[in-house]
Amino acid sequence: MEGSESASGIEKGSYTFVLENYSLYDGIYVDEDIYSEQFDAGGYSWMVLLYPAGRTVAANEAGFASMYIYLNSETDDLVQCLFSIYLLDQTGNGENYGTSIFDRNPPQIALLRSGHVAGCVHFIPRATLESPNYLKDDCLKFRVTIGVLTKESADVFFNVNNQSFSAHHWVLASRCPKLLSGIDISDMDPNIFKAIIIIINYSIIKKIQYFNEIYMTAVLWYVYSGIPQEEEESSDLGPFVLESFMGKMLAAADRFELKDLKKILLSHISERISAESIAYILHLAELCHAKELKAACLRFGAQNNAAAAADIMGSDGCKYVKKNCPSLFLELAYNGSYSRNECDFYKKVLSAVNETFAGILRGPQCGTDEHKIKEL
């Protein structure tokens, strides 16, 4: 490492990766890397990885090389860092080629665990990488700077199921102000989660119930990195959509007003609408104020023929909504913004739940007690 500094709670270190005898790597395959020596920055050990033929087939076919930083330290920490990577211009003109996330607004911060990478799959066209401006005497030079957000600089703390999470006010204020805003719990659906703010020693502590550490990690991951965390789940969510990873994250995105994350999740959930899941997803859409998802369910129902509609009416999901939330179907059936086909579909629904609707004005509008999101 050539230099380090600490300012504003970010401990920086820089390193120059000198790659000699580059021609020896001619014919290197996709996803094969050339790695640097280890160097230290921000209290952790790192390496730089260059993929001349691209880390992915898509990058290779587009003619791009890939470049990453690699967290080499063996640690249980989730390291919050910023970085810049530049290929140095060796002609003396100062036209270095690269990328930096230090000055992005809103901030984009990489979150890395031991053995993981952050960087650019389409870092530089390979033709540019190997041009005379950058490749001189069979040698490439890269300048890498890594800034680690120190634990001491954290000024916001969350406690979820007795697990502590640290964060930075300047990051949350820019990317998710709702996490700092003294959430009004009076209108919060108890089926999702509750939040209580406690101030101790000038730091903010939030205790969140009905929302475990897995989802808090995923929320902070998105807030810092701008990239949603992925979770393996069944393609047909069915009755488990409210308790699923995507269902919980949609609830969090709605509550914390993470609009971009909500849009991504809505797209993924919309792709999983089926005859069995349509009613459950409708209920999720209602809880999370997701008009687009509700409309997608309507379109799915309206596009089915009579036999398919009968399957939907006979599904466990339809029986569940008939019993627990008949007013949701009533609202959908008579919403004037829907097309004739959509209304025709919901007339079939009304016929299927006729007995329930007969007493709707005498009973609660929408009961959810028998299908609460389980406490995690």
What does the model show?
This protein is an alpha+beta fold and 376 residues long. Helix content is 31%, strand content 25%. The chain contains 13 helices and 15 strands. The protein has helices spanning 57-61, 126-129, 169-175, 213-225, 245-255, 259-270, 278-287, 291-302, 306-313, 316-324, 326-333, 340-352, 354-358, and strands spanning 3-7, 10-19, 34-35, 39-41, 44-51, 64-71, 79-87, 97-100, 110-112, 117-125, 140-149, 156-160, 163-167, 194-200, 203-209. Strands 1, 2, 7, 8, 9 and 11 form a six-stranded antiparallel beta sheet that branches. Strand 12 (156-160) and strand 13 (163-167) form a beta hairpin. The longest helix has 13 residues, at 213-225. The relative contact order is 0.09. Mean pLDDT is 78; it is low at 194-202, 332-339 and 355-376.
Query: What is the tally of beta strands?
Result: 15
> How confident overall, as mean pLDDT?
78
H/E element string? EEEEEHEEEEEHEEEHEEHHHHHHHHHH
Global structural class: alpha+beta
Described by the principal axes of the CA atoms, the overall outline is elongated
**How many DSSP helices?**
13
State the end-to-end distance: 44 Å
Uncertain stretches: 194-202, 332-339, 355-376
> What is the helical fraction, as a range of percent?
25-40%
Rg over alpha carbons: 26 Å
Question: Per DSSP, what share of the residues sits in E-state strands of 2 or more residues?
Answer: 25-35%
How can the largest sheet be summarized?
6 strands, antiparallel
